[in-house]
Design goal:
Order of helices and strands: HHHHHHH
Oligomer: single chain
Number of helices: 7
Shape: globular
Number of strands: 0
Helix content: over 70%
Length: about 130
């Protein structure tokens, strides 16, 4: 329980830091490094996905898919939801609205299942 709470706090801190600063390129070894706690790796992949929305949406989608796959393997539902959300954003930037909606609905479903009202509200706003 504490492990999950700490990883979620770390994730929120990373998201806030990312939003406060301009997007920066992450060193490749930062993403590929081997971490003891795979939730950190999921969060780093989500951050990499976010950093590539506007510059390389295809790369953003690839990072989002990696994050989702790992999050599902380790049962990190919050990470899975944010990964799907990011994939949807990258598709939105590409103008692929059908794919966008599909990924956002999947993300919304996870946010609802884990009781994350903020994530749920954000996705409802995006979908709206």
């Amino acid at each position: 329980m504490i492990k999950i709470a700490l990883s979620q706090i770390l994730f929120l801190l990373l998201v806030n830091l990312c939003c406060a600063a301009s997007p920066a390129k992450l060193p490749q070894n930062f993403i590929q490094a081997s971490f003891k706690d795979d939730t950190i790796r999921v969060n780093n992949l989500i951050l990499a996905s976010k950093n590539h929305f506007n510059t390389d949406p295809a790369k953003s989608i690839a990072y989002g898919r990696q994050a989702y796959k790992l999050a599902e393997q380790i049962k990190f539902r919050t990470g899975a939801a944010y990964a799907l959300k990011n994939i949807g954003i990258a598709y939105y930037i590409q103008g692929k609205y059908t794919e966008t909606l599909q990924y956002w609905q999947r993300s919304l479903s996870i946010f609802k299942s884990i009781g994350d009202r903020l994530g749920e509200a954000n996705l409802l706003s995006n979908i709206g």
